[in-house]
Specification:
The chain is mainly α and 316 residues long. 72% of the residues lie in helices and 0% in strands. Helix 9 packs antiparallel against helix 10 and helix 18 runs antiparallel to helix 19. The radius of gyration is 21 Å and the shape is elongated.
């Protein structure tokens, strides 16, 4: 899914015990030293943060999350706790949150399930089962409906071909099927879309989209926009955009989260934390390229306080 290099890497000058003692000191007494907490956690890899959690428990017989939860608040607390989850746990938690109570936040389900690789989806399913004693596929099944449900369930099977082989004949065949399922008839036959979009590898999909444009003179996005609507349209477009340029997709989601009045802080946390060890520097480059301003500047003008500090530390 595009070029990737992380902004947070394994910190070689690392001592669990040193970090744990500094965090403990930052949380003790009157007032919390948020800057010290940010400095430590935002410059450690997720693997190192897991070691810090274990060491904290071993030394002080307390869960680091619980200690921080009682000392921090608001979006800053959410961001710090997100950094302490393993990636699969964090995604699982976000999915659970999106399906809680009345109404489902389909956009969160779409953003996570349409952009993760097979191994990530498997890790999310395992974490979900462990954390909530519940089956993610069953929960998605009962919380969504129609073609969107079928699409998400297909993605949860985590059996997309992840090779780099391109079969030109198949690309032509898929392009023809998509055409016959969409533009060429009333009512879109979503099954063809689901199969192609959830099972083919990225380079194969790019070849299919190219063949489609050549055969039918329209690009696949235009067709999806005219044939599908609502959340299904959003899901199809997410897969297409991610296949073409995953980092541009995330740059756009970040931009949307900060557009107009009010900022969607949850989206900022979700993307900046979950991509910090995947491709955040590339997302920053894309953001600059598309919106002609640094992502850090957008965050500065849309957030404040310790929450802003932790996001900027992850972006660095």
């Amino acid at each position: 899914m595009g070029n990737t290099h992380p902004s947070i890497q394994y910190n070689v000058h690392f001592s669990e015990e040193g970090d744990v003692k500094r965090i403990r000191k930052a949380c003790k007494g009157a007032g919390t030293d948020e800057v010290a907490i940010i400095k430590i956690l935002a410059s450690r890899s997720n693997e190192q943060r897991q070691k810090i959690k274990e060491k904290y428990k071993a030394l002080y017989s307390k869960d680091l999350e619980k200690v921080l939860k009682s000392d921090l608040s608001g979006c800053f607390e959410k961001a710090i706790l997100a950094m302490l989850d393993r990636p699969g746990e964090f995604d699982a938690r976000m999915l659970k949150e999106a399906m809680k109570g009345v109404g489902t936040h389909e956009d969160v389900l779409i953003e996570i399930l349409c952009t993760r690789a097979n191994s990530q989806i498997k890790a999310i399913k395992e974490a979900y089962k462990e954390m909530f004693q519940s089956d993610l596929t069953n929960d998605v099944q009962s919380d969504t409906s129609g073609t969107l449900r079928k699409l998400l369930i297909s993605l949860l099977e985590a059996d997309r071909d992840e090779g780099f082989e391109v079969n030109e004949n198949l690309a032509g065949q898929d392009a023809k099927e998509l055409y016959e399922a969409g533009e060429n008839r009333w009512g879109t036959d979503e099954l063809a879309f689901n199969t192609v979009l959830t099972k083919r590898n990225c380079v194969q999909l790019r070849a299919t989209f190219k063949a489609y444009a050549i055969l039918h003179g329209t690009d696949i996005e235009t067709v999806i926009k005219s044939e599908a609507s609502g959340d299904l349209k959003k899901a199809y477009l997410t897969i297409v955009q991610c296949t073409k340029d995953c980092q541009a997709y995330f740059a756009e989601v970040l931009h949307e989260a900060m557009k107009g009045a009010g900022t969607n802080e949850d989206t900022l946390i979700r993307i900046i934390v979950s991509r910090s060890e995947v491709d955040l520097p590339s997302i920053k480059e894309k953001y600059q390229e598309i919106y002609k301003k640094p992502l850090a500047d957008a965050i500065k003008s849309d957030t404040s306080g310790d929450f802003q500090k932790v996001l900027l530390a992850l972006l660095k």
